[in-house]
Amino acid sequence: MVLEIAVHTMVAIQSPRDARVPKDEREQLIELRATRLAFYVLLSGMHSIGGQSEVMWPAVRANRRTKKEQARGCEPAPQKQ
Q1: Is 65 left (phi over 0), alpha (psi -120 to 50) or beta?
Q2: 13, 46, 52, 65 - which has most CB atoms within 10 Å?
Q3: Sign of CA dihedral 24, 29, 34, 40
Q4: The pLDDT of residue 76 is above 60
Q5: pLDDT for position 65
Q6: Distance separating alpha carbons of residues 15 and 10, to the nearest angstrom
Q7: Using CA of residue 10, residue 12, residue 16, residue 17, what is the dihedral sign?
Q8: Rounded CA gap, 7 and 1, in Å?
């Protein structure tokens, strides 16, 4: 990736007029497909994180003591199930 950035920079410096040419249909189609794929990857990652939080939240809450309980040095109250 670093090499790609360096090559793009060198090409832009050598021929700045070519760097400002608008994208043709093929480049736009490639970008559209890449964006669509990236959206689904992001969506599935967010969904899996959200699913984990729904599964893990009751366990986290059960192990957490309230500030009042910490101040008194008490054990947490038993959770209703």
Answers
A1: beta
A2: 65
A3: positive
A4: no
A5: 61
A6: 9
A7: positive
A8: 10
Could you tell me the pLDDT band of residue 11, with boundaries at 50, 70 and 90? confident
Q: Give per-residue pLDDT as tens, 13-66.
A: 888 777 678 888 999 999 999 999 999 998 888 888 776 666 666 666 666 666
Say whether pLDDT at 70 is over 60. Answer: yes
Are the C-beta atoms of residues 17 and 10 closer than 8 Å to each other?
no
- Locate all alpha helices (DSSP H) within the chain, ordered by sequence: 2-14, 16-19, 25-63, 67-72
| Tokens linked to 39 | 């959206």
Going by C-alpha positions, the residue among 54, 80, 53, 77 that lies closest to residue 65 is: 77
